[in-house]
Amino acid sequence: MDLLSGELNARLKAASGPTLWLVDENIQLSSAPNAAVTVVGNRFDVIERLEQQGWQARFGDFELSDFANEQFDCILYRVSKEKPVVHYLIQEARRLLAPQGCLVLLGDKGEGIRTYARKAASCLGGERQEQKLGKDSWCAHITPGPRAGDCPEHQNYPELRPACEDDTRVYWSKPGLFGWNKVDRGSAFLIERLPEMLGQSLPLAGRMLDLGAGFGYLSLNAAGPDTRLTCTDNNAAALLACRFNLQQAGLEGRVVAADAADRVEGPFDVILCNPPFHSGFAVDGDLTDRFLSAAARLLDRNGTACFVVNQHIPLERKAAPLFKDIQLHADNGHFKLVRLRQPIHP
Q: Exposure string (b/e) for 36-75, b if CB count within 10 Å is 16 or more?
């Protein structure tokens, strides 16, 4: 367990007064559930696991408006990867902390923890203390006080907004979602070549799964009125944006919160996927493996799964135990398209 996780676990164990624990992707937990702690997080798999362990946990896009002012003695937060999320939660801490409360921020120097601590102290108007846990790991304590100033800009974090566009439509999204304000080049490459990969024109008919849907780009460009569409993602912000974009486009579809489609039942005729390979601040190759396993489980025996991945990811090798028919369809020097057929079911 790393130093930051060790410090977080110690504080969770010691919490006695009302405590709010804000959870993103970064978590290594050894502490038993503590009845004094309320957990709010935006990753479905993390919250589901905490609930199963007995924590008071709820999943959502950090919706904190129903908590009372000055409700918590302590707020614990291992800072997120996305800056607007951190800025938004610092602002919320000012409202939620009791006068003698404390905001505890944990993070590495390269993640901006010391800058966040200074911004939090300016926003809350109290004292700031910083503790160096290791070479690059820091813990900051910030208290409310009489000198409250401007809070850091969070780009109106809670609200969906027109974030990017292409020749066909405007896409609504929000901070907190990876790549929230751009059309992903890999996904665009997949849509461009999808008719060739499938041997049929768009929009698609039949049962389609958008696996790791994000704000819904693949669904919006591949689905139509005859598509029986399911979209799934682990991120609360992605689910909100995907639902809204489908509604704006007049498309019907199920949008399911799930961890690598573990709550989804097949089979599907077509599965589209641009799998994430980042978890928190780290690169996680296991995510690609889990998305491939999900595709093999959910794909109809006569169906097709179309993946787009960064050129360096060995998707063909990873897919070999799961599919009989694996074809590299295209490689543009940055991304490659891989078509998978004939899943190997146990």
A: ebbbbbbbbbbbbebeeeebebebbbbebeebeeebbbbb
